[in-house]
Amino acid sequence: MPEEQSFDFMFQILPILIGIFFVFVIGAILFTIIKGISQWNKNNNSPETVAKARIVAKRSEVHGGGETSAYTHYFVTFEMENGDRMEFQVKDLEYGMLAEGDQGELKFRGTRYLGYKRTANVS
Known about the structure:
The chain is α+β, with helices and mostly antiparallel strands. It contains 2 helices and 5 strands; from the N terminus they run H-E-E-E-H-E-E.
């Protein structure tokens, strides 16, 4: 009889655990969507800024591969005149044209990269 009770207990607790997992997954998806929309809105409402900056670092992230298509994200870190650093995701063609040590004018809006005009290359 104790085995039947533990078997009944599993049928009672399993739907609760599945429900909790389902709520957690849906909550995580909603959080990600809301965070993305919030950042998009904040960027749209931010002023377009142009600042003198130097490129201090470049990096890339590769996702996928193996059984799926691989894709790469490219990032460049800029250092402003006041010492603040900002990292932006850039397109592959721009990534290839920028070099660490380049100095110029960075144009951005919030966390959105708009462009970089090189004025000097200091190694």
